[in-house]
Amino acid sequence: MTEAPALDRGARSRDAILDTAGDLMSRHGYAATSISMISAACGLPVSSIYWHFRSKDGIYVAVLERARTALLAALPPAEVPGADVAQRLDTFLTEVEDAFRRHPRGVKLLLGLGMVQQDASAAAAAEVHQYRDALLAWARDSVSSVFALCDRPEVADELARFTLRMASGTAVARWFDPDAVLETGPLRVALLALATHHGVPVGGVPGEDAPSGPVTTGE
C-alpha cells in the first residue's frame, strides 16, 4: 500500500530537481550551476539529488534529454500545408517561431548551451548531437515540402542548416539579451533568396515583398 505513494513522491522530487536544474543551467550555464545551488532552489537535500542522478553531469544529461523530448514532440508534421511556396513558407516560419517562443529554455539549453559548453561529458554532448540530428532531419523535410525539393536533397539540406543556424544564433543572443526573438521576417527573405539562387521556382514571390519583422503568433 505504501509503495505507490513512495514512487509518486520520488517522481515529484525528480521532476522538481529537473525543473530547477534546467532553469539554473539555462541562466547560468553548466559549470556555474552547483549541486548546492540546485538543492537550495528546489528545497530538496543534496542527498536526494545524488540519489536520483548520482552526479551533476547526470542531472545535466537528464535535463537535456527532457528538453529534447519536449521540443521534438512539439514540432508540427514536416509536410507543410499551403497552396503555394509563399503560403507554405509562412506556415513553416510561424511554426518555427512558435516552437521557439513556447520552449525558450529548452531551445537555449540545446542550441545555445550545447554549442558553447566546454565542461560537459561525452554523454551530454551525445544528447545534444542526437537532438540536432533529429531537428535537422525535421527541418530538411519541412523545407523540402515548402519548396518542393524532393529531388534536390542537397538544396533542402542547405536551407535547413541555414534556418537552424539562425535559430542557434538567436539562442546564443539570449545569453546577453533575454528578450531576443527569432527574426523570421529576414529569415523568410534569406530562404527565398537562397532558393532562387539555386534555381528553385518560388511561384513569383519576390524576397523583397516579405515582411521585415518577426512572424507573430499570439498567445
TrEMBL record:
Residues 34-53 bind DNA. Keywords: DNA-binding, Transcription, Transcription regulation. Residues 11-71 form the HTH tetR-type domain. Transmembrane segments: none annotated. GO terms for molecular function: DNA-binding transcription factor activity; transcription cis-regulatory region binding. PROSITE patterns: HTH_TETR_2. It comes from the Bacteria. InterPro entries: Homeodomain-like_sf, HTH-type_TetR-like_transc_reg, HTH_TetR. The keyword Transcription applies. Gene3D superfamilies: Tetracycline Repressor, domain 2. This is TetR/AcrR family transcriptional regulator. It comes from Streptomyces cyaneochromogenes. The lineage of its organism: Bacteria, Bacillati, Actinomycetota, Actinomycetes, Kitasatosporales.
